[in-house]
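User: When convenient, might I ask for sequence and structure tokens for a protein?

AI:
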Amino acid sequence: MLLDTDTVGLVSRDKDRDDLREVRANSFAANFLMPEDGLRQLIASLGKGAESRLYAEIFDEAGVVPVDSRTEPGTQEIQLYDVIQLAHHYGVSPLSALYRLRNLKLLSESEFERLKKMDSEGRSRTIGNLLGFPQLELTEQRGEFQRRFLSLGLEALRREKISQSKFFELAERVNVQRFVAQGLLDNAGIDDGEPEPVLLPER
């Protein structure tokens, strides 16, 4: 919206993943969905991500006491169950969380590859189920996406950026039935005049 004003629309494809616009869009999405400060705090709350060597100066009535300690080997390594907690907290996939951790250098390349392989084997879903995390099923993701998408569509219509026919077309693209889109439009109060609300049947 801010940088690629010359582009009306762009379909994301694997072959374009090194394109500057694609890299920039992915970077923005990762930073927006998983802000660095919050992510680092969450990892720290899990007892991970700290430096292997800690140096501090503690002040007391007698003066300064230097503290120099090391964490036990392996205690700071992020595990798949940590990634699952992170993914659940931010509402993203474990794979997205893994890429974010790697890009923030909280995972080495070898750790990233090991955890990515475990995720591809379906272990993330299994661990998530056993830990009692509700699964972000495709239908739930689609429902949340539809809600946000349609709300943005209504706002664009209210601002006269799109037409009613375009709103219906957009609703159809995310598999929303026409009568639902019409009901939203009729009840949103953005038409000229005061249309009579359409009451949907009880579920």
Notes: The chain has a mean pLDDT of 78. Residues 149 and 171 are 8 Å apart (CA to CA). The radius of gyration is 24 Å. The longest helix spans residues 138-158.
